[in-house]
Every structure is written in C-alpha cells, then in structure tokens.
Amino acid sequence: MNHLLEAWELLIQADTWTGPTGMGARAWEHLLYTVLAVGVSALIALPAGLAVGHFGRGRNLAVLSTGAVRALPTLGVLTLVGLVVGVGLMAPMVALIILAVPSILAGTYSGAESVDPRVVDAARAQGMSRWQILFAVQIPLGLPLIIGGIRLAVLQVVGTAMLAAYVGAGGLGAPLFLGLRTYDYPLLLAASLVVIALAVLLDIAFGTVQRTARRLMRGPA
Amino acid sequence: MGIEFRHVEKTYPDGAQAVRDISFTVPSHTTTVLLGSSGCGKTTLLRMVNRMVDPTGGQLLIDGEDIAGAEPVRLRRSIGYVMQHSGLLPHRRVIDNVATGLRLNGAARGPARSQAEELLELVGLDPALGRRYPDQLSGGQQQRVGVARGLAGDPNILLMDEPFGAVDPLVRLELQQQMKRLQTELRKTVLLVTHDIEEALSLGDQIILLRPGGEIAQAGTAQELLSAPADDFVARFLGVAQGRRRLRTSAGQDGEWVVTDAEGRPLGVVEAPPGPVHPRADPSGSVPPEDGR
Ligand SMILES: Nc1ncnc2c1ncn2[C@@H]1O[C@H](COP(=O)(O)OP(=O)(O)O)[C@@H](O)[C@H]1O
Ligand SMILES: [Mg+2]
C-alpha cells in the first residue's frame, strides 16, 4: 500500500513526466509501438479475413493457423527473433504482430460472415459486383465485429508492448524494467499504472467506436 | 420473344437434381407463374433467368439470345428481382435501397432518389417512409419496398420469388391486387414463383405447375388447368378432385345466381347470370341500357 502511495506521488510530480526518458515520452513511445504493431497487423489480417469471409473458403485454415499462432508464447518469440535480429524495435514488433494478427483475423472473417446471407444474395441479385458486395454490404455490416477484433488486438498489444524494453527498445517497459532492476518499486508501479490507464482509455475509445458502428449499421444494440 | 427455357436441367454440385428437362416460354408482357410445392425446383428455375444459377443442361434465351454468353452482373442489373424476405440492406435508408439498382446503372444520387420516391408512390407507400430504415417498416411495407426496388430502372423482366409469402393473408391479398393493377399498367414480363394456388390463379396469365422431382406436370392458363387437368396429380394439387374447386350455381330468391361448392355451401353471388344474358330492369325506370345485347 505504501509503494502504491509513493507511486501515486511520483505520478503527480511534473518532472516524472518531462524529459526524453520521462514517463510522458515513454507513454508516447508505448502508444506508437501499439499503433504500429496493430496497424501492420491490420494490413495483414484485414484483407486475409475479408477474403475468408467473402469467399467462405479457407476458414478452417484460418482457424487452425490462428489457433497455432496464439499458442506461441510471446516472450519466446521475442527472444528467438531478438537472437536473430539483435536488440532494437524489430524483435518486439514481430512478436506483437504475431500476437495481434489472430484477433484481427478472427474478428474480420466473423464480421464478413455474420452478414445475413439473404441480404448478400439480394445484393448479388440486384447486380452488385463482388467488390461492391464486399465494400457496400459485408464490410459495413460486419464493421462492429471487425472493430471488436481490432479492439481486442489493441488491448493485448498495449499490455505486451512492455516487453519491447526487454530487448533494449523503449516504451513504458523501460521504467518498469528499470524499477525492477533497481528495486525502485514505486517507479515500477507507476509505469504499470500508466499502462493500465492507457489500456483503459484505448478500450473506452474503441468501445465507443464499436457502439457507434453498431448503431449506424442498425445491428443489435 | 420473351424468356424461353429449352430442355433446361440443373444438378447441384452435391448431386441434388433440382430440375430435369424443362421447356416453356414466358411470353413478353405477360405473367407466368411457377407453381408447385416446396422443393420442386421453382426457385432454381427462376434464378436461372438472371444467372444466379447456371443450368447444367439446356439453354435459356431472352428475346432469342442465349444468356449463357451474357455477363452475369450486367444481366442482373437489367432484370428486376423480388424475393420473399425483402432482402433490403438494413444499414441503408429505404429510399437508398430502392435507388440501389439505379445507382448501379450509373444514375446520379439526386435523380436516383427522386425516381425512387416515385416508385415508392407507385407501390402505394408514402414517399416520406423513404427516410426510414427497413427495420422501421412493417413486413408488408418492406415487401412493397422490395417490389419498388425490383421495378427500379424500368426493367423489362421482373422475377418474383414468393414475393407475398411472408406477410399475413390480408396484406397478401392487398399486395396481390396491387400487383395486378401495376401489371395492367406496366406490362412487364413477369416470372413469379409461388406455392399458393389462389395466387397462381389470380396473377398468372400462364401457370406452369411443377411436380416433385423438377418436372412440369402441366402448363396452361388457369382455365385450362382447372377445366382439363392433365392427370391425377394436377387435379389433386389444384383441389379439383376433392371438389374444392367444383362450383355450382343455383338461382337465388331475387333472381340472382348463388355460387356454392360441391357440398352446397354458398360462396358468393354471380353478377352476370349464366345462361342467356338479358338486360336487367332499370330500377329508376328511365333510359333503357344502350349496350344491352
Ligand atoms: N444451392 C443448392 N445446393 C444444393 N441443392 C440445392 C440448392 N438449392 C436448391 N437445392 C435443391 O434443389 C431442389 C429444388 O430447390 P428449389 O429450387 O429451391 O425449390 P423450390 O423453390 O421449389 O422450393 C431442392 O431439393 C433443394 O434441396
Ligand atoms: Mg423456393
């Protein structure tokens, strides 16, 4: 309890946040890592998930491979890739992308699949092309689930991005590992609190976006 | 001219033979009804016309041209399609749903919307409903929107798959009557699928009665089917055999003719009496009817 209080006192001091290695800069780095990892994952997983959902093929493959990838321990991947590419941002990015892809993939193909097949059939019968069906019917109507997948990926990545500091990169893992090594528990706790706050804020933001999408697409409340 | 089915067959990839060797023609500007119980291949036949289903044998010609060579997306944009469940896009306003086909055919948003409003009026809906979303309409209203969407772009051919099957009987009757009114005005080439005999008799200029297994049991006008059923199946299906459609007339008290069923239950009165037609006495006693034959 004492440590927590000290951590709180640390957090309300201005100079904790300032400077190139201050908590502010670290939080910003952390957010950038998260955005980068989730962004690259989305570039991979969105088209793949849409293809699976649209064509209705390759679903088993998608389920199996995402299951297999999910079983990989992130720390193991990080260490392995780190051994190959050395210290820096590369290894944690690969590990985070591997973490995020399955969630986005699963959300995307479930989203595209969730659209009432009769609505898709009607759209086809009206003379919509495959692309038009994808962009005017399946993506908008699947949006709530697609965003749900991204929301989950963000939550996983924001927590796990702590590990970036483990191989010499920055982010909120840096003060955390520093606190761990130097027995500076208030610092360690302060960094954890900031990560938790970041995660909660991002989740609220994505939750709002998801609800808005659901309302606009007239899905179940 | 019209739509010609020539020895058409369909076996689905899973081996189900839905349609075998079917030939008939849907003459232009008339309504042909595909009638039959569930599973006898009606929907399969209907969907061949806009290439939602491709036949595994035979040919399908529209105005003499084999549609096997037509580009499916282009073909579908030129043919109206109305389905049992309206199939409206839930995230688009009613007006934009109706305008979808117009937009696909290249119309700008403004003109497409005003045309869509006219179509809503044509099918008996208040154009103000266009601002709503499909889930804010009743089932009957949604079906009307489906019909309006099918008519958008003024297609020559209208395909209707049990268009009034999912609404309650009263609304169904209303929609059928409206369809008849519309058809006398628009004279589309209509192919309509139903399992409802009344609907077939009331809307079909021609009725193609299918039997299980995907074969034609009999094709003809309502009169031909009722008065000369080709076999037992047709007679049973139409209810002629059970006397459901054997009607009798008998003279009522005030000189009108009462129609009864085979068991003598009264069904209604005939306005023009059977037998020699004679001008009725004019109650006002003034000018005698000029056209009395
Ligand atoms: N996509 C499909 N794949 C396999 N079999 C089908 C498919 N569509 C229809 N069938 C089968 O073909 C037969 C005719 O179906 P359908 O044309 O829908 O009949 P109807 O519209 O008269 O009820 C049925 O036995 C049905 O199970
Ligand atoms: Mg059917």
From TrEMBL, chain A:
* Database matches in PROSITE patterns: ABC_TM1
* Membrane in keyword set: yes
Q: Which domain of life is it from?
A: Bacteria
Entry keyword annotation includes Acyltransferase: no
Subcellular location per UniProt equals: Cell membrane; Membrane
Q: Which GO terms describe its cellular component?
A: plasma membrane
Q: Which CDD domains match?
A: TM_PBP2
Which InterPro entries does the entry mention?
Answer: ABC_transp_perm/SBD, MetI-like, MetI-like_sf
User: Membrane topology per the record?
Assistant: Multi-pass membrane protein
| Gene3D superfamilies named in the record | MetI-like
- The residue range of the signal peptide is none
**Where's the ABC transmembrane type-1 domain?**
27-206
Which is a GO BP term held by this UniProt record?
glycine betaine transport
Official protein name in the record: ABC transporter permease
Q: Which organism is it from?
A: Nesterenkonia cremea
TrEMBL record, chain B:
- Domain ABC transporter: residue ranges: 3-238
InterPro entries reported in the protein's UniProt record:
AAA+_ATPase, ABC_osmolyte_uptake_ATP-bind, ABC_transporter-like_ATP-bd, ABC_transporter-like_CS, P-loop_NTPase
| EC number annotated for this UniProt entry | 7.6.2.9
Transmembrane domains' residue ranges: none
Alphabetized GO MF terms: ABC-type quaternary ammonium compound transporting activity; ATP binding; ATP hydrolysis activity
Source taxon at top rank: Bacteria
Keyword Nucleotide-binding listed? The answer is yes
Q: What keywords does the record list, in alphabetical order?
A: ATP-binding, Nucleotide-binding, Transport
> Is Endoplasmic reticulum a UniProt keyword of this protein?
no
Q: Where is this region: Disordered?
A: 265-293
The protein in question is named: ABC-type quaternary amine transporter
**Species this protein is from:** Nesterenkonia cremea
